[in-house]
Amino acid sequence: MNKYRSHTCNDLRKNDVGNKVLISGWINKKRDHGNLLFIDLRDNYGITQCIIEKENKNFINLEKIQLETVIQIEGLVVDRSKETINKDIDSGEIEVSIKNFKVLGACKELPMPVFSDQEYAEEIRLKYRFLDLRRKKIHENMILRSNVISFIRSEMNKLGFLEFQTPILTSSSPEGARDFLVPSRLNPGKFYALPQAPQQFKQLIMVSGFDKYFQIAPCFRDEDARADRSPGEFYQLDLEMSFVEQEDVFNVVEQLLVNTFKKFSKQKLMLEKFPKISYADALLKYGTDKPDLRNPLIINDITEIFSREDVSFEIFKKLVKSGSKARCIVTKNTKDKPRSFFDNIDKWAKNEGGSGLAYFTIEEGKEISAKGPIGKFFSSDSLNEMMKITGAEVGDSVFLACGKQQELERITSLARDKIAKDLNLIDENIFAFCWIVDYPMFEIDEQTKKIGFSHNPFSMPQGDIDKIDFKNPLNILAYQYDIVCNGIELSSGAIRNHIPELMYKLFSIAGYDKKQVDEKFSGMINALSYGAPPHGGIAPGIDRIVMLLANEKNIREVTMFPMNQNAQDLMMNAPSIVDENQLRELNLTLKLKK
pTM surpassing 0.90? Predict the structure, then answer.
């Protein structure tokens, strides 16, 4: 026993009745019953109910004391009566009769309550994050995060991986998001960059002859915040393996994620062997490369239907003739839904910036027909053809959209989610993982109209290296892959390009000459010239894994000290202004935009 406590606030049980104890913690709650005062004392481990009678000399002082004050209680463990047992806490069969107490840490008036998980404004929560973290749900989220990371480390060790730490101060990369730059005092005019990921370093570890590497790596990207993305920094399980193919990486990651999600969640896995979906199929069937497979709805391409003479829906026919695509979503057995259901979906699509969603329901009389605002524009034969393409049946409804491919994918992806939620089709008690594979190596930049890398520039192209058609770069597929769970991208990865000559060729397509590659990636290209093994890896996001396991919608709820939407730390007042002496030391002057 130390001088502060003989037990934690979760230790005491029925067999401790009659013992003198010393416990310390925060006053979570007080309930004054006149002649009896109840105090719930809380620490990291749990809650113990303590009681004091009015006759006790300490009663008046405890009655006045502020919630969240840190106190030490000396008392006797006593039985609770049967009707007052609290089954919601582990120590619920006993309570501590207070003999004496001591204030260890006084507390000012609270800016927000701690004993409830009531939602509060982000500004208050982040400014007083140390208070926010005391609240039950978020406190448990942080403990979960710690346990998940410890478990992952253990699993990686079992799988034969070695943990190494890579540099935090490194060189700026021309690819990816914006870098955070750090001025160098010893090298005036030059800057380090905080790593967006340990990408080059982990490849260099493989070139150094280590076979399996991992680390729980901090990554820094100057990106805007989203619900599933922290501004500034995040953590990922970074791993790399030598002498592997794509399937070897998949096997390791699937085993790790299945074990982790089984251990820390009661939700079921849809499949323990994750399905593989090509990038092209993902965009066609789900409208996104981050599909939520809990949603059973599938998007179908029906462009060819609008080339038929027996279809007179002229709006779509003209769009298709000008190069647009037509796609649809079939909802099973929705013939009895009121018209308001369909009209609301159409109105919603317009509010999302689309041109709306046309719809009809398939009926059967003497022949197949369509009921709805546009049903009259389709012949029985054309409807039969559509039913063959989509798998639609009598009693099903069809939502249709038409437009340029990128916008069409956006609106149909959103509509697929919206319709499934409205029809209550998504099972919230399932984790549905999948791999997205066969990414294109290159893409056209919509703004510059130039060819650039679509994913990771260090990836290996698919196929026989000697037969790659460099003249048609948009047809080149790469050994790149993403892992997605419930519509959230957990990670991107790739089999790496370990052949310098091939790297020069691929970078030249993206507009880099040999000199630029040698300058920008000197460490990497030089190392690959000294005998590099085939290698590949991936980096699942720790924050997003914990977010899924904690069933949280916002990554802030599983991050210890997150920034706000403007990448500001309200608690520590960062970023902050630095004084002239610091700038002078770094050979910097500021010229701020007005």
Answer: yes
